[in-house]
């Protein structure tokens, strides 16, 4: 199924969706580290969790990230990585975890590759 047909199928089923999951990667100190990821406007119909995987190593699932009044949400990698950012030379994958599925349903939503 193409992205276009999937979009129209979703529009038919849901009618109105307003989101922007364009990843904005936040650098730390030193600037060779990634400390966070911000999505400009997230879905707020449920409290979604996020799984972070770095170079194939699962850092776990967290869910306590507030949604801003404008609808954005920042995923703080320091919560996953014992207070440290992730070196920008590593591959970072972020998955959205659907609530009420026992962490069994998740989809990749962002990926950093240097």
Automatic annotation (TrEMBL):
What is an example of a Pfam family matching this protein?
Fve
Molecular function per GO: carbohydrate binding
Which branch of life, at top level?
Eukaryota
An example of a Gene Ontology BP annotation on this entry?
regulation of immune system process
Q: What is this protein called?
A: Immunomodulatory protein
